[in-house]
């Protein structure tokens, strides 16, 4: 009870930051309710949700310290503020989707015959404690990079955006809290007592960094439209930034239960295609939902745009981009949106999304039928629906 | 050294958590000379306690000399990483007057020279050289990155221009432990990896620290954040850490993974500790030493422990390695904190009094605060008012803060020497002893 009271006070110190509603739902309204149902059904299967390690972090002195300091950022434009809001308000928006998939995968694979030294009675809802810890570590790493993604380049900050001092302070908090989460992930990993898993997850962290690094550089200077992004390199980068962590965590969950290489491969494939499908789906949202009246915004690196570029070729793309650019050098996204919608990019991206969803489904069919497997299938199917 | 000695004063019984591993608490009344100024007489404050603590060590050194090499009897908790502050020891009748000249390094050596004579003294740098020769190249080989710019960022500080102090200590400790364990001195592959990992973890933390502190210079180079921006700097630090963590896993020893993962946690917790100031003066000093352990010494201590684990199953050996690293690490940082006041700007590769500018009260300031209570308010507001930095610097210079911090560093080094002397004699062991002198006498 004392813990809950403490938690409430800590959460409210984050909650105090929230001056506006944040809506980052990945899915349009109709599919969102479908997704929520799939997720909440899946959570029941794994016994209890994944948030225990995150809870421990949230309750730590260090993070409550940050929460206190982050209050000072209210009213500034530092991205950490939005990320912090997300800790409290986005719990329904599949923030912990990765942990959930790891748990479902662990359960779907079941106990291994080779795992003589693992005690079956330690399992809760068919999941080993180490696998639960892994699921939490996966979430910690994901969250750490949400925080580190929000670091601001101070030289790009102009005084009209607000005082530089606030940004410096926000950066300091973001570096520290991201590092804190990563450090907890490291000690958590060490406690799994499996160096193969440590290596695998560490490599996933490296992948994630490389993916985010690419994301950054291509959204800043790399947006030079003349760069011909090949589909293969784009998929590779997207795997690094959005797929590697889940794929490798799923694989590691198999390793923890001493499942063989084949099972590890299946888990990896599911995690990889599931995340890529998920990413495609969210990239497609601005193009599949909504009427013409809504203000549109999308990343020029999102799947439909990249595919569109690929189809029309570099020259036409440069031209289209010029046509959509106003005199003030601002890109008129509504105009560009119409151009892209008229092309084949959106259909191709939708096909690709379905393709990833299907590959995830194919992979998971190697496991025996079970409630957990069905839940994984439902998740994979939900990703292909718009 | 002032010729005029302040009067002798007996201070009351002290209860203070001391920063040294306390083996016993039967400290006999023992008089020790420590220079003290009249203004502070009778104030039972942390300086008294620190000097008292230091006495404990001196006393135990005497014990070591007479007992010879002895195990750390009764210390069952050797596996756990010890917190910096050990249970309080009672020190009675401390007389705080000191002649620092008496505490020179010959005294350091005299307490164990009668145990055994080590092989011919070699420069620690020379002795570790063959193991460190390709260190930076090997680190670069660990970092496979497709993106060339990220690669450039990650390799930026592995240019061979750093002191490579951590790898050097690790390598020497590994060899000393190997010889202690009846083996050849040559490094095991895992030990060599730990030398690399220690430098990588250190570098990753520097990169992040520079963003946190907004530094634009490091080792005479423009910092990564200054050249490429904060976003990329943070990612580069994260990447180096992930590579270090992979290399660590590949050693294949779960205990070693646990020991070095603790370092990563300590580094972050140490950084968090720097955010706050303590109102209470005793707590403030304790806080400072604990922060120093976490931010600097933990990496050295746990790397030393890790290389000992790989060759010797005896927890007592692990503890010796850990304690050597811990004491040397804290001494190193204390000297660093002194140099921040005494070294001129271009020498250290960063501007002097940088810590004050960052709002940090280090050893010299904390000691100076004893003589100049005016500093207290400045410490609490983290030197944020106009002119605080200059005033504080002036106070420190007029106080004994610098000397007292140096003195404390000396005592930590003596404890390090006492610890390492429990290992079998070897050229590497001697080099580790010699290293403590180099740490104390370095001027950059």
Automatic annotation (TrEMBL), chain A:
The keyword Transferase applies. It holds the Pfam family polyprenyl_synt. One of its GO terms (cellular component) is transferase complex. GO terms for biological process: isoprenoid biosynthetic process; ubiquinone biosynthetic process. Keywords: Transferase. GO terms for molecular function: prenyltransferase activity. Belongs to the FPP/GGPP synthase family. This is Decaprenyl-diphosphate synthase subunit 2. It comes from Albula goreensis.
TrEMBL record, chain B:
Signal peptide: none annotated. It is found in: Mitochondrion. It is an enzyme of class 2 (transferase). It comes from the Eukaryota. Keywords: Isoprene biosynthesis, Lipid metabolism, Magnesium, Metal-binding, Mitochondrion, Transferase. Transmembrane segments: none annotated. Heterotetramer composed of 2 PDSS1/DPS1 and 2 PDSS2/DLP1 subunits. One of its GO terms (cellular component) is heterotetrameric polyprenyl diphosphate synthase complex. Heterotetrameric enzyme that catalyzes the condensation of farnesyl diphosphate (FPP), which acts as a primer, and isopentenyl diphosphate (IPP) to produce prenyl diphosphates of varying chain lengths and participates in the determination of the side chain of ubiquinone. Supplies nona and decaprenyl diphosphate, the precursors for the side chain of the isoprenoid quinones ubiquinone-9 (Q9)and ubiquinone-10 (Q10) respectively. The enzyme adds isopentenyl diphosphate molecules sequentially to farnesyl diphosphate with trans stereochemistry. Its EC number is 2.5.1.91. This is All trans-polyprenyl-diphosphate synthase PDSS1. It comes from Albula goreensis. CDD domains: Trans_IPPS_HT.
């Amino acid at each position: 009870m004392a813990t809950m009271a403490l938690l409430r006070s800590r959460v409210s110190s984050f909650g105090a930051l929230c001056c506006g509603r944040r809506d980052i739902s990945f899915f349009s309204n109709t599919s969102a309710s479908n997704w929520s149902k799939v997720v909440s059904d899946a959570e029941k299967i794994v016994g209890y949700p994944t948030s225990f390690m995150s809870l421990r972090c949230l309750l730590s002195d260090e993070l409550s310290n940050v929460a206190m300091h982050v209050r000072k950022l209210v009213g500034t434009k530092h991205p950490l503020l939005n990320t912090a809001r997300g800790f409290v308000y986005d719990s329904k928006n599949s923030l912990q989707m990765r942990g959930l998939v790891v748990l479902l995968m662990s359960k779907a694979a079941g106990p291994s015959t080779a795992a003589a030294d693992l005690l079956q009675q330690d399992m809760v809802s068919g999941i080993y404690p180490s696998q639960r810890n892994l699921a939490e570590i996966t979430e910690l790493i994901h969250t750490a990079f949400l925080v580190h993604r929000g670091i601001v380049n101070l030289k790009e900050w102009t005084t009209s955006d607000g005082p530089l001092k606030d940004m410096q302070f926000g950066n300091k908090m973001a570096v520290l809290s991201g590092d804190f989460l990563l450090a907890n992930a490291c000690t958590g990993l060490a406690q799994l007592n499996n160096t193969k898993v440590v290596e695998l997850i560490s490599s996933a962290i490296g992948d994630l960094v490389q993916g985010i690094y690419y994301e950054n550089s291509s959204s800043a200077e790399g947006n030079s439209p003349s760069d011909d992004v090949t589909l293969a390199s784009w998929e590779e980068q997207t795997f690094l930034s959005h797929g590697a962590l889940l794929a490798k965590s799923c694989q590691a969950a198999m390793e923890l239960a001493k499942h063989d290489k084949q099972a590890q491969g299946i888990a990896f494939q599911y995690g990889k295609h599931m995340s890529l499908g998920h990413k495609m789906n969210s990239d497609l949202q601005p193009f599949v939902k909504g009427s013409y009246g809504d203000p549109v915004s999308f990343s020029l690196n999102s799947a439909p745009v990249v595919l569109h570029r690929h189809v029309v070729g570099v020259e036409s793309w440069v031209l289209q981009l010029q046509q959509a650019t106003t005199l003030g050098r601002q890109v008129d996204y509504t105009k560009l949106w119409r151009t892209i919608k008229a092309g084949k990019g959106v259909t191709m991206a939708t096909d690709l999304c379905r393709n990833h969803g299907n590959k995830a489904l194919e992979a998971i069919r190697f496991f025996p039928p079970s409630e957990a497997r069905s839940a994984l299938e439902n998740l994979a199917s939900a990703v292909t629906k718009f | 050294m002032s010729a005029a000695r302040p009067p002798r004063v007996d201070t009351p019984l002290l209860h203070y958590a001391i920063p040294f591993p306390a083996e016993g608490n039967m400290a006999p009344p023992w008089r020790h000379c420590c220079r003290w100024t009249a203004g502070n007489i009778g104030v039972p404050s942390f300086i008294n306690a620190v000097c008292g603590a230091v006495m404990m060590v001196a006393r135990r050194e005497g014990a070591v000399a007479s007992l010879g090499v002895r195990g750390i009897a009764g210390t069952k908790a050797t596996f756990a990483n010890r917190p910096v502050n050990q249970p309080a020891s009672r020190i009675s009748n401390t007389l705080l007057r000191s002649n620092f000249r008496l505490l020179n390094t010959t005294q350091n050596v005299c307490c164990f020279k009668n145990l055994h004579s080590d092989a011919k003294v070699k420069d620690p740098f020379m002795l570790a050289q063959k193991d460190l020769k390709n260190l930076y190249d090997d680190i670069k080989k660990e970092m496979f990155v497709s993106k060339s710019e990220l690669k450039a960022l990650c390799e930026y500080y592995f240019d061979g221009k750093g002191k490579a102090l951590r790898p050097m200590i690790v390598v020497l400790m590994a060899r000393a432990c190997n010889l202690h364990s009846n083996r050849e001195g040559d490094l095991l592959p895992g030990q060599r990896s730990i030398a690399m990992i220690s430098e990588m973890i250190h570098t990753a933390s520097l990169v992040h620290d520079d963003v946190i502190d907004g530094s634009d210079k490091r080792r005479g180079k423009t910092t990564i954040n200054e050249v490429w921006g904060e976003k990329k700097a943070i990612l580069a630090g994260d990447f180096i850490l992930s590579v270090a963590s992979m290399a660590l896993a590949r050693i294949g020893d779960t205990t070693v993974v646990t020991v070095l993962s603790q370092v990563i946690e300590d580094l972050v917790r140490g950084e968090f500790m720097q955010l706050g100031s303590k109102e209470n003066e005793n707590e403030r000093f304790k806080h400072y030493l604990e922060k120093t352990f976490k931010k600097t010494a933990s990496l050295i201590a746990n790397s030393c422990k890790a290389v000992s684990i790989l060759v010797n199953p005896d927890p007592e050996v692990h503890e010796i390695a850990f304690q050597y690293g811990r004491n040397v690490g804290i001494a190193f940082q204390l000297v660093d904190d002194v140099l921040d006041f005494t070294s001129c700007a271009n020498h250290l590769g960063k501007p002097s009094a940088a810590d004050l500018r960052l709002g940090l009260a280090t050893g010299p300031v904390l000691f100076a605060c004893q003589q100049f209570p005016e500093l207290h308010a400045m410490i609490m507001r983290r030197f944020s008012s106009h002119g605080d930095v200059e005033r504080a610097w002036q106070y420190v210079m007029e106080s004994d803060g610098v000397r007292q911090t140096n003195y404390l560093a000396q005592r930590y080094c003596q404890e390090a020497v006492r610890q390492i002397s429990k290992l079998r004699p070897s050229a590497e062991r001697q080099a580790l002893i010699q290293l403590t002198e180099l740490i104390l006498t370095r001027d950059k």
